[in-house]
Specification:
The chain is α+β, with helices and mostly antiparallel strands and about 70 residues long. It has a single domain, classed as Alpha-Beta Plaits (2-Layer Sandwich), CATH 3.30.70.20. The chain is about 15% helix and about 30% strand. The strands form 2 sheets. A two-stranded antiparallel ribbon has the order 1-4. The protein has a two-stranded antiparallel ribbon with strand order 2-3. A hairpin with a 5-residue loop joins strand 2 and strand 3. About 20% of the residues are buried. The model has no long low-confidence stretch (mean pLDDT about 90).
C-alpha cells in the first residue's frame, strides 16, 4: 500500500498533480490553506496508489513531500 503526504502550506492550487496521477486518486478538497486555495486531497479508499511519485515529480512547489511505497 502506498501513500502520499501533501504539505498544506506549500500547495498553491495549480492542480497539476491531479492531472498527473494515473489512478486519479487526487482531487480538489474542501479545506483551504493560508493562501486561500482549496487544497489537493489524497483519496485512496481502495489502496490503489502505485507509489510512482508522478504527482510529486510534477508539483512545481514540492508540496508533495513524501511518498510511501508499500
Amino acid at each position: 500500500m502506498s501513500h502520499i503526504v501533501i504539505d498544506k502550506n506549500r500547495c498553491k492550487g495549480c492542480y497539476l498533480c491531479i492531472e498527473e496521477c494515473p489512478k486519479k486518486l487526487l482531487k480538489i478538497g474542501e479545506e483551504v490553506n493560508n493562501l486561500g486555495v482549496h487544497l489537493v486531497e489524497f483519496d485512496d479508499p481502495n489502496h490503489e496508489c502505485l507509489g510512482c511519485a508522478m504527482c510529486a515529480t510534477r508539483c512545481p512547489d514540492i508540496a508533495i513531500t513524501e511518498v510511501y511505497r508499500g
